């Protein structure tokens, strides 16, 4: 519960700082790939604390990124709450982020923050294997390239989920495109 409250406080602080940066803070637009119920709760709490109206666009990371790209010439988002480290790094590389200093930054490991963004959570990526599948137990990702796994491996669409695209890019760099294609 403390972690959730710390995250909420950090996000609310980010929203407050963004609101102060607006010339006339009548509204704040937040784009998020995070859970819709959490975004609504944060927006409601922020509105109650500041009186500033919050408009939330919540969608998959792919849809949020597509919207950001479409609005590149006339950005509409004041705050982005991403569900993907790769998204933050991509936006950082493009120069689309403003510096941000969280009041809780000292509690976050150095490898999970930069001058422009800070991780609000960490998730693990793993292999789920059905022990009744008739396939050998995979011990590492490369095991999935073996013939026993042909046509038996599934993954979310990298075009729809940015974190899957990031994983695919890292796997291709580590194992090469032919290895990735066999999975």
From TrEMBL:
<dbReference type="GO" id="GO:0030976">
    <property type="term" value="F:thiamine pyrophosphate binding"/>
</dbReference>
<protein>
    <submittedName>
        <fullName>ABC transporter substrate-binding protein</fullName>
    </submittedName>
</protein>
<dbReference type="GO" id="GO:0015888">
    <property type="term" value="P:thiamine transport"/>
</dbReference>
<keyword id="KW-0732">Signal</keyword>
<dbReference type="Pfam" id="PF13531">
    <property type="entry name" value="SBP_bac_11"/>
</dbReference>
<dbReference type="GO" id="GO:0030975">
    <property type="term" value="F:thiamine binding"/>
</dbReference>
<dbReference type="GO" id="GO:0030288">
    <property type="term" value="C:outer membrane-bounded periplasmic space"/>
</dbReference>
<feature type="signal peptide">
    <location>
        <begin position="1"/>
        <end position="27"/>
    </location>
</feature>
């Amino acid at each position: 519960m403390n972690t959730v409250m710390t995250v909420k406080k950090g996000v609310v602080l980010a929203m407050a700082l963004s609101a102060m940066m607006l010339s006339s803070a009548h509204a704040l637009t937040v784009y998020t790939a995070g859970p819709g119920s959490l975004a609504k709760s944060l927006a409601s709490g922020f509105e109650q604390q500041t009186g500033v109206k919050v408009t939330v666009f919540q969608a998959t990371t792919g849809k949020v990124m597509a919207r950001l790209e479409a609005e590149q010439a006339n950005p509409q988002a004041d705050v982005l709450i991403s569900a993907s480290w790769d998204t933050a790094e991509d936006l950082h590389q493009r120069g689309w982020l403003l510096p941000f200093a969280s009041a809780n930054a000292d509690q976050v490991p150095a490898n999970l923050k930069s001058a422009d963004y800070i991780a609000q959570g960490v998730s693990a990526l793993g292999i789920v294997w059905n022990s009744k599948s008739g396939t050998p137990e995979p011990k590492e990702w490369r095991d999935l390239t073996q013939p026993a796994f042909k046509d038996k491996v599934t993954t979310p669409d990298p075009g729809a989920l940015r974190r899957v695209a990031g994983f695919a890019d890292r796997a291709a760099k580590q194992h090469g495109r032919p290895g990735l294609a066999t999975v």
